[in-house]
Amino acid sequence: MSQPKEDLNQRLSLGLSALPLDVSSSHIERLIDFIKLIAKWNKTYNLTAVRELDAMISLHLLDSLAIMPHLHGKTILDVGTGAGLPGIPLAICCPERQFCLLDSNAKKTRFVQQAVLELKLNNVTVIQQRVEQYHSASGFDTIVTRAFAELSEIIKLTQHLLAPKGIMLAMKSQHLDQENLDTLAQATVIPLTIPGLDAERNVVRLQFSNVAEVS
């Protein structure tokens, strides 16, 4: 039996308050519509291992939105977006920013493009390409990754896409090796507490005074 939308809205609202994030009721509606699209496409496309809408609220929506206060600038690149995470939840709640969602998997980018159309997200561009082959003339103010690669590999693959004074936000679920972090200039580990999720979450913020420093 499907869960009433009102119950999902209430659970998401409580989670957002706990983060705490101020998200409008219209954005909450669109966030719920998004996970319903994931659930629908999961039946055929196997986009994520998470099947229950209730679990998606914590694992997909709140987990993605927890980094919203740490975004920098107007242009955001979500590398390895998969099913549009964290890019689509962030784009819904940050309509003033422009998002580029990048993934090499054609099946997943087809879903993300459809979600963008159905949710009427005018601030999202979807690109199917490998990150090392993708280029941007001006670069991005924030590059976001979620369970994408090791930190050193993230820097290696995305450095050419970072705007001057831009930052990288690497979302990590596992314990971070401090010795590895010590080799990275201006790395800050920010612990995250996700409502409804009893698991370690961190975002590593990497900032460089200029792009050349990440080479």
Automatic annotation (TrEMBL):
<feature type="binding site">
    <location>
        <position position="85"/>
    </location>
    <ligand>
        <name>S-adenosyl-L-methionine</name>
    </ligand>
</feature>
<keyword id="KW-0489">Methyltransferase</keyword>
<keyword id="KW-0963">Cytoplasm</keyword>
<comment type="similarity">
    <text>Belongs to the methyltransferase superfamily. RNA methyltransferase RsmG family.</text>
</comment>
<dbReference type="InterPro" id="IPR003682">
    <property type="entry name" value="rRNA_ssu_MeTfrase_G"/>
</dbReference>
<feature type="binding site">
    <location>
        <begin position="131"/>
        <end position="132"/>
    </location>
    <ligand>
        <name>S-adenosyl-L-methionine</name>
    </ligand>
</feature>
<feature type="binding site">
    <location>
        <position position="146"/>
    </location>
    <ligand>
        <name>S-adenosyl-L-methionine</name>
    </ligand>
</feature>
<dbReference type="GO" id="GO:0005829">
    <property type="term" value="C:cytosol"/>
</dbReference>
<feature type="binding site">
    <location>
        <position position="80"/>
    </location>
    <ligand>
        <name>S-adenosyl-L-methionine</name>
    </ligand>
</feature>
<dbReference type="Pfam" id="PF02527">
    <property type="entry name" value="GidB"/>
</dbReference>
<keyword id="KW-0698">rRNA processing</keyword>
<dbReference type="GO" id="GO:0070043">
    <property type="term" value="F:rRNA (guanine-N7-)-methyltransferase activity"/>
</dbReference>
<dbReference type="InterPro" id="IPR029063">
    <property type="entry name" value="SAM-dependent_MTases_sf"/>
</dbReference>
<comment type="function">
    <text>Specifically methylates the N7 position of guanine in position 527 of 16S rRNA.</text>
</comment>
<keyword id="KW-0949">S-adenosyl-L-methionine</keyword>
<keyword id="KW-0808">Transferase</keyword>
<protein>
    <recommendedName>
        <fullName>Ribosomal RNA small subunit methyltransferase G</fullName>
        <ecNumber>2.1.1.170</ecNumber>
    </recommendedName>
</protein>
